[in-house]
Amino acid sequence: MRTRLAPIALLAAALSSGCSEPPPAPKPVLAGELAIEAWPLPAMPGSAQPDLSVAPDGRLLLSWVNVQPGRRPAFQFAESRPDGQWDTARTIAVGNSMFVNWADTPHIVATGDRALWAHWLQKSADAPYAYDVMLVRSLDHGMNWSAPRKAHDDDTRTEHGFVSMWAQGNGSLGMVWLDGRHSGAATQAPAQAEHGGKHDNGHGGGAMSLRAAVFDANLRASVETELDAMTCDCCQTDVAATADGAVLAYRDRSEGEIRDIYAARFDGKTWSKPARVHADDWKMPACPVNGPSVAAQGDAVVVAWYTAAGDMPVVKLARSNDGGATFAKSLAVDTGMAVQGRVAVAIDAQQIWTVWLREDAGAQSLWLARHAPDLSKELQRIKLADLQGKGRATGFPKLVLNGVVAHVVWTDVIDGRPVMQGAQLKLR
Predict the structure, then answer these.
(1) What are the sequence ranges of the domains in the chain?
(2) How far is CA 183 from the centre of its chain?
(3) 384 Cβ neighbours under 8 A, 6+ residues apart
(4) What is residue 30's predicted lDDT score, i.e. its pLDDT?
(5) Model pLDDT, residue 395
(6) Among 216, 30, 249, CA closest to 135
(7) Of residues 7, 31, 83, the one with CA closest to residue 426
């Protein structure tokens, strides 16, 4: 049984077959003011945790984790070619010691010197949640990679993950991550330490922190900073590039267990003090595993996030006109018990794009909305796909803009196996 796709079943062609013969090019389908085209992906069935980024020269970079029965997990990627097709998929890392989690996605980005950078998570001890962030760099389109280097400077056998990376200048890389060196989280009982379960300050005497660093071409770290000493334990971080530097969005955690979204800015030398994007005042004594997404164009910044303050799930947007220093009043994009969140956002001169997941009566669906740049009105709302998968198995969708085309990738579960799917969206 194949996933049902909306507005019609056209997008089923986006399933990667792994066969040598590519599927026929699908015909575009008009949905409102958008032309939706299936986007065949180079990942084999059994692949999940997609990540998608745009290189400075316009190349698309798609990465994923490929898990086949009886084989070691493999972190793989592919680059788009000028003709729009995918280059041959390549393997970045493989091994049984790789830590694979439905919510903590490895990433790949390119810097202005055409270098590729990638990270993954590697087990550091036998404890259930002891793993490090490993960083590599390639100068030949991923044919060869540098020796892996641990991104953080501690040797604690604790959690390190939920990384965001960005090009810092022409040939350096910026990185932020959640760091458990003060938490002792690896020693938690699995039922408690499981991402999405309850976390507290009692184990190891400390909380999860948020750290950042800049890496040079030799993978040497500088400007390493602890940005926040107490954050949500397992919510994704995200970073976007503004006209004046990087802007970071993440889920904070207060002593009173308020888990709202915060933002901070980096000018290449120092970070601003993190500030709350919006006062949801969501009291949540556990990690929701549902981080924010941030996008920028010039000084315009937009953050999308999930909250359930007052026990009501909501997907929200907020815009900043000063590079993320302050944000205007938030806008509720979708509200109700079916809202799952897992948001992704993008911005261009014409609109703000948002994708998110819903689960109605046990059936998941992927939605997209377009809003005016100032969030004054909704331009369009469509259901991109009906999913066969449920719960955590579908992971987190990804959304990027490349010129006039929006690209969306996500994971479904088809006949019991994860399968990555994709769509391209163009304005008429």
Answers:
(1) 1-40+348-428
(2) 24
(3) 5, 6, 11, 36, 355, 366, 367, 368, 408, 423
(4) 57
(5) 97
(6) 216
(7) 31
Residue 45 corresponds to which tokens in the numbers above? 């069935």
Give me the residues of the chain with pLDDT under 70, please: 1-32, 185-205
Nearest Cα residue to 65 out of 100, 90, 96: 100
By residue count, the chain amounts to: 428
Give whole-number Cα distances, 142 to 50, 88, 93, 217, in Å: 17, 11, 11, 15
Nearest to 397 by CA among 428, 371, 364, 361: 364
Between the alpha carbon of residue 293 and those of residues 110, 226, 266, 289, the distances in Å are 19, 21, 17, 13
The position carrying tokens 């971080």 is 237
How far out from the chain centre does Cα 163 lie? Answer: 9
Per-residue model confidence (pLDDT) at position 427: 87
Q: Which residues does 115 contact at the CB level (< 8 Å), separation at least 6? A: 137, 138, 139, 171, 217
- Residue 73, sorted as left (phi over 0), alpha (psi -120 to 50) or beta, turns out to be beta
Cis amide leading into 7 (omega within 30): yes
| Three-state SS sequence of 412-424 | EEECCEEEEEEEE
Query: Rounded to an integer, what distance in angstroms lies between the CA atom of residue 97 and that of residue 126?
Result: 10
pTM of the model: 0.91
d(CA 387, CA 393): 11
Show Cβ contacts of residue 417 under 8 Å, excluding neighbours closer than 6 positions: 45, 46
- Measure the N-to-C terminal CA separation of the chain; round to a whole number of Å: 32
SS3 assignment, position 208: coil
Rounded Cα gap, residues 336 and 343, in angstroms? 15
Report pLDDT for 336: 98
Residue 183: per-residue pLDDT: 87
Nearest Cα residue to 366 out of 317, 416, 423, 309: 423
What the block records as the tokens of 187 is 């020693």
